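[Meeting: bench + compute handoff]

Bench side (C.D.) handed over the final construct sequence. Compute side (W.E.) agreed to return the predicted structure before the next meeting so the bench team could plan truncations. Sequence as handed over:
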Amino acid sequence: MDFSLPPETDAIRQRVRDFVETRIIPLEADAASYDEHENITRPLLEKLRAEAKAEGLWALNMPKARGGQGMNMVGIAACYEEMNRSIFGPVVFHGAAPDDGNMRLLNMVGTEAQKERWLQPIIDGKVQSSFVMTEPDGCGSDPSMTYTKAERRGNDRWVITGRKHYITGAAEAKHFILMARTSDDDRTGLTAFLFHADQPGWKILRRIPIMGPEEHGGHCELEFDGLEVADENVLMQVGDGLRATQIRLGPARLTHCMRWTGLGRRALEIAMARVEVRKAFGSTLIEKESVQQMIGQAAMELDIGRLLTMRAAWLLDQGSLARKEISMAKVVVADALHKAVDTSLQLLGARGYSKDTPVEWMYRYARQARLVDGASEVHRMVLTNFLRRQGKEFFGWGATRG
């Protein structure tokens, strides 16, 4: 097994690392860099995005013909990790959720007309997008529990009614991918629809306050009361909504893992810089065995998560769905991120609990990792079901299609 990166991939990774180190991380210490929701201010973001585009580091997951860099999943894994060594990093390079996953889905399954209308403006950074699935009394980890309805009107359009919540980025998004029920069939009852923010028949009820820092556009509750969508804006075919969800959410879960390993690394870097110089009871903290145990454990768990992430990325590049491998990575990396950030905060003491470092920001952010894109308990259930079906083959070698 060769775990080294191809030279051209590693060169891009190094360029991303240098950009993060010199242009983005220094901004974290300036209160003026943050908006009211603890994310990077829009004017500063647009300035950095222009620089990232100029350096050929924009939209790494999109085809070169559309303005991206055309990288495979293994290359994206290495680069996304470097991006999220800064809390501002992914959005600067256009590698943040939900745009990252929405672009990938539209590029994979959209018609050429849909790509021109709905995808290209997202790639260009002209509009933000949102994926509208989760419901207050319905679907979360289980998309089949979708109660928002789309009903036929005439021969060429659908009328949508229902309610969604925790929709990331909705307050600033212009392009939306909406999941709604078009029949009662368990497998073909969902359909994906594309709509624009300016269309009538829907509204944002509230931007839901959350524990941690927010993405641009927050996490919103939406109401649909007569939104009309033409047939040309059905993504894939009527009844393909569950397939569209599966195509989007698997790789999107993995890109979370890619980013989270970078954030965990950064948390440990901040702690290491402190414990190397902080003295107590006659020696620096790093010389104390208890501190070494804490750091070593956190670093080991992060690296295990990185290896699982890279294995799943490689399988995706081979054409596998990598469902069980993605679930493994999602569980392990979510725990490893929290472990790394919690360890860092503990070693920094009051400095870590304060806003003198970004670690308290990371700590509040990290708690969501075990919830978003499927709670850890759901992914463990998925793994158990794979083990029941596959038996000994669960531990087989090589690329599989499962």
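W.E. noted at the follow-up: DSSP finds twelve helices and ten strands in the chain. C.D. will use this when planning the next construct.
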